[in-house]
Amino acid sequence: MSHKAAVLTALDTPLEIHEIEVESPRANEVKIRMGASGVCHSDVSMQNGTLMGAAPIVLGHEGAGVIEEVGEGVTNLKPGDHVVVSWVPQCGECFFCLRGQGELCKAADPALASGGLLDSTTRFTWKDGQPLFQMAASGTFSEYSIIPATGAVKIPDDLDMKVAALIGCGVLTGVGAALNTANIAKGDTVAVIGCGGVGLNVIQGARIAGAENIIAIDMNETKLQMAKEFGATATVNASQTNPVSQVMSMTEERGADVAFEVIGLGATIDQTIQMTRRGGQAILVGVPSMDVMVTVPAFLGLVLQEKTIKGCWYGSSNVQKDVPKLVDLYKKGELKLDELISREISLDQVNEAFDAMKTGEVARSVIVY
Ligand code: APR
Ligand code: ZN
Ligand code: ZN
Predict the structure, then answer these.
(1) What is the H or E stretch that residue 157 is in?
(2) What is the percent of the chain where pLDDT is above 90?
(3) Is 1 a residue whose pLDDT tops 90?
(4) What is the torsional sign of CA 215, 216, 219, 225?
(5) Which of 52, 281, 305, 313 has the maximum number of C-beta atoms within 10 A of its C-beta?
(6) Which helix (H) or strand (E) holds 271?
């Protein structure tokens, strides 16, 4: 069956809209008619090579849609079910899943490494039958996709597809970083560097976790204004002042109890670690390029200060448990999700959404199919 998708054919080139073919789902896979897909910074990172991937590839990993067809052996999902796409399909049975660390699922490794599904092969092809990879076991910049059944999380039919799509990456990652990865105590002071689609969710997660002071740091004034709507109690414009000394002076020279890096740059990772108080936690959420190193003086920076530096992958989420929890929080009005949607666009406008993300104009552009 042929349909439209946005394809990255080579590094550093614009995405191209093509008619491509999609197979039927194989065993333990499902076919999805995409409802919506957010445009996340990791898509841009695939385009510019910060994240390494195969090409040609259908990008997009923050999506939601309706199950169109299920493969052999799929018993928990049926055509017509609405689902969020999880870009880490969590098997539920491996060492990590059994210990509640589904974001590190071993069974997902081949998919993330190959640009295919769990068996490393892809279900997309060009018209001539040549294979086309799919980003992160998903490929949501596409009217249809095949994903592992373990990567489809059922949601209520009345949930807006745009909102559901955002849950699939930015919300799970950001809110999860605050609620799962970090250990935020009531009354804590939290600092967040980078207030894009993911950082705004860290901010609202910190608010839900009971943080008293939430210091939002960005170089873009519009983002800092948005950060306030999402729960920031103070803002620091890093293009005008040194964010580390600002956070120090706001905390009696102690530093933040918990600081988050949500960009993926060496310089801001350093700042995040420096602005964390002794005994505090520095949580690294942003995805840096492969050559970025973390350098910390072992004694003065770590041992003597009892600092924790912790990586965060997919908000340390157990998707089958956390997606329903986030939907619940949204329905209760505790989670702002509609406010994350700066623009609704069509698939053809995906390159404009990439540009808007690079200039920092938007929290999220969302493709509606
Ligand atoms: N200091 C402060 N803020 C900065 C700096 C800097 N040096 N450089 C960029 N920013 C801000 C931008 O202004 C923007 O608001 O960081 C924010 C990044 O937001 P987005 O581009 O919307 O990225 P997002 O989708 O939120 O992803 C952030 O998380 O999942 C990962 O791969 C993703 O690494 C990326 C990160
Ligand atoms: Zn993402
Ligand atoms: Zn697993």
Answers:
(1) none
(2) 98
(3) no
(4) negative
(5) 281
(6) helix 266-274
Q: Distance (Å, rounded) from C-alpha 148 to C-alpha 236?
A: 42
CA–CA distance, 36 with 338 (Å, rounded to integer) = 13
Tokens, residue 290? 């492969």
Closest Cα partner for 307 from 264, 254, 248? 254
DSSP alpha helix (H) spans, 115-239? 161-166, 172-176, 197-209, 221-229
Q: Cα 61 vs. chain centroid, distance in angstroms?
A: 8
Q: How far is the CA of 60 from the centre of ligand 1 (A)?
A: 17
Q: Which residue's CA is the closest to the ligand 1 atom numbered 7?
A: 268
Cα–Cα distance between 206 and 183 in angstroms, integer? 10
**Ligand with the closest atom to the CA of 59:** 2
Helix (H) / strand (E) element for 47: namely helix 41-47
Phi (first) and psi of residue 129, to 5 degrees: 90, -5
- Ligand of minimum distance to the alpha carbon of 102: 3
Atom number, ligand 1, closest to the C-alpha of residue 357? 21
Beta-strand runs (E) in 94-225 = 124-125, 131-134, 144-148, 152-154, 189-193, 213-218
Residue ID of nearest Cα to ligand 1 atom 31: 286
Nearest residue (by CA) to ligand 1, atom 22, is 196
Residues having CB within 6 Å of any atom of ligand 1: 40-42, 45, 173, 193-199, 217-220, 223, 238, 262-265, 268, 285-287, 357, 360
What is the rounded CA–CA span in Å between residue 264 and residue 266?
Answer: 7
Question: What is the average pLDDT across 70-90?
Answer: 98
Write the CB contacts of 274 (distance below 8 Å, at least 6 apart in sequence): 244, 255
The number of the ligand nearest the C-alpha atom of 193 reads 1
Among candidate residues 126, 234, 225, 144, the one with its CA nearest the CA of residue 189? 234
Quick: pLDDT tens for 271-317. Answer: 999 999 999 999 999 999 999 999 999 999 999 999 999 999 999 99
Q: Cis peptide before 56, with omega less than 30 degrees from 0?
A: yes
Distance CA 243, CA 270 (A): 11
Give the Å distance between the CA of 40 and the centre of ligand 2: 5
